[in-house]
Design a protein that fits this description.
mainly beta, five-stranded antiparallel sheet, two-stranded antiparallel sheet, 7 strands, globular
């Protein structure tokens, strides 16, 4: 089963329904990069430093009461983190989690997987 939603750019997108599961890993899109930019201040606070770069490379989605985005982000110096970004159907965006190897980052090829919210608002 699948359904269609209008994204924030008013383009129709098809989503497979798999309640609770994440979709396939895909290359990052301009929309995903825009989500990363929207949570940049919270990410810098979580990391305790401003990264040299902030480039989304890949992502997975999970349909919830909105959409969770699990995003691999290149920080520069061959370092990456995985972000959990929540986008409510109203359009509001929040950083819900950051996965990194004790600030050393995660591997560029490390699979994006579901992880629990670890940043509280």
């Amino acid at each position: 089963r699948s359904f269609y939603l209008l994204d924030s750019f008013l383009q129709e997108r098809e989503f497979a329904i798999m309640p609770g599961g994440t979709g396939d890993e895909k290359e990052a899109t301009p929309e995903v990069q825009a989500l990363v930019e929207q949570v940049k201040d919270d990410l810098v606070a979580a990391l305790g430093q401003s990264p040299a770069t902030l480039q989304a490379t890949h992502f997975k989605t999970q349909v919830v009461a909105g959409m969770n985005y699990f995003v691999r982000v290149h920080l520069g110096d061959d370092k990456h983190v995985h972000l959990r970004i929540y986008k409510h159907f109203s359009g509001s965006v929040e950083l819900h989690g950051v996965r990194h190897g004790e600030l050393g980052g995660v591997g560029a090829q490390e699979e994006l997987v579901y992880f629990d919210q670890n940043i509280k608002k």
